[in-house]
Amino acid sequence: MKKVLITGMSGLIGGLLRQHLEARGGYDLSALNRRAIDGVRCFQADVADAEAIKPAFAGQDVVVHLAAYLGSDDWEGQLAGNVIGTYNVFEAARLAGVKRVVFASSGNAVRGFEQAAPYEAIAAGQYDEVPEGFARVTHEMTWPSRIYGAAKIWGEALGRHFADAYDLSVLCVRIGMVRKEDRPQQPRDYSIYLSHRDVVQILTQCIEAPDDLRYDVFMATSNNKWGYRDLEHARQVLGYVPQDSADTFREES
Questions:
Q1: Domains plus CATH for the chain?
Q2: How confident is the model at residue 244 (pLDDT cuts 50, 70, 90)?
Q3: CA 87 to CA 225: how far, in whole Å?
Q4: C-alpha distances in angstroms, 7 versus 23, 46, 68, 88, 239?
Q5: SS3 for 64?
């Protein structure tokens, strides 16, 4: 049984991943969460409290760090939740001898590209202004949107440091738009939609990736016709092949 700690399990993606791993079997799951979660071993603490979270990491094989503060321009919240909190998670994992941290980065690490052509037109749903064969944004590129996006790039850079300095495997996933309704809600969603089924696929692939994969960054969206974030790297390294597409909902409407 692989021991997996999920931070932020009470969130949408945390709940989806829990359900998927329980159905798949072969995992001993724990949660690190600010509020109690029924039916699973749960350590109640805030990731901003370094000492309080340490017990959750003992004996874990993999940590999936999904807990995050989402207020895009609230510096104090970003500092506590996504800067200090992310450092605390990596450090607690290192001290406990955890083998891998899967870090939930964000598409906001590259959302700034939507200020420039042709990505601006794609986000607005103005596809007649998009040239054929446009260059997609790759995992090697950054252009953060708001403090939240910058904090996620900090997390990726911090992961690189921990991988290099402490031989901790760190895999970062730039998660696209995952909605409770599991469907696009506005024009921009048609480029960055990530289905429930696809988000748990790529997170599970990161959990199960070979031990010698020390550090990497992956884009994660579904197979959207107008997706501007390149998925080829995730396909080559992880075998990620999205099963869903935002365009299915366009055809239904």
A1: 2-252 (3.40.50.720)
A2: very high
A3: 36
A4: 19, 10, 9, 12, 25
A5: strand
